[in-house]
Amino acid sequence: MxxxxxxxxxxxxxxxxxxxxxxxxxxxxxxxxxDITYSQNxxxxxxxxGYVGPNSIMSQPYTGTPPHGKILDTFDSTVxxxxxxxxxxxxxxYGGPDVSIENVANEPAKYLKAVTVMFKRSGxxxxxxxxxxxxxxxxxxxxxxxxxxKLAGKIAKGMPKGCIAxxxxxxxxxxxxxxxxxx
Length: 183
Known about the structure:
alpha+beta; 2 domains
């Protein structure tokens, strides 16, 4: 009888552990199906606006800093996603052999490694100024972190490193390093 009680206790402990782990995994702050779908809609809106994709508009390339890339191209505007218009910050991240400001200006597609985006999505994450974060590949698909999670949504929220942690340190309290125009 004592063995049966012990087996039941072990089974209940295992069942609770599996439940707790599955709840934790499903509560990830980014990379969930909704984030992925929203990022695809955001990419489509940016393509339609001419902000990404072949022959997209480009600002002046400049020397970058980690983690984004050796050469960057950043601009801000607005875009409408799912009927809601919000501010968008688009940073193209360039790298590779022979990357330079001049080479990127002449052949941007050859050196483009990622497109990192901040989109002001009202009500999305008030604690972090409602920014929706995405790291796209040049073709609009999503980059993944080392654990295979798609980089869209509240990327690394609550972690000591990552998009939100870094951008919280931006002057002006708006998560933006280049200007303080978007509150």
